[in-house]
Amino acid sequence: MPIINVDCWEGFSEEQKKVWVKELTRTTVDLFNIPADKVLVILRETSVANWGQAGVVATDPDFLAKSRSDELN
User: Could you tell me the sign of the dihedral formed by the alpha carbons of 43, 47, 48, 49, in that order?
Assistant: First the structure.
């Protein structure tokens, strides 16, 4: 049984998550030719205060610019 773990940030709507789970399942079923009831999808949402990139926490007002640098901020 495939288990698909998706680590993502908070903020996706319930409708987006329903479509996401359905499409991940559909792709897995089509790719591996297995029954849909054998596919488990787990979405793990994380608050933006609890993740970062390039040494910058995502709540930083300049996160987008700072997190795209190859220098440690």
Answer: negative
3-8: which pairs have CB atoms within 8 A and are 24 or more residues apart? 3/40, 3/42, 4/28, 4/39, 4/40, 4/41, 4/42, 5/42, 5/44, 6/41, 6/42, 6/43, 6/44, 7/44, 7/46, 8/43, 8/44, 8/45, 8/46
pTM score above 0.70: yes
Domains of the chain: 3-66 (3.30.429.10)
Distance of CA 67 to the CA centre of its chain: 18
Q: What percent of the chain has pLDDT over 90?
A: 90
Q: Considering Cα of 50, then 56, then 61, then 64, what sign does the dihedral take?
A: negative
Looking up tokens 């007002």 gives: 61
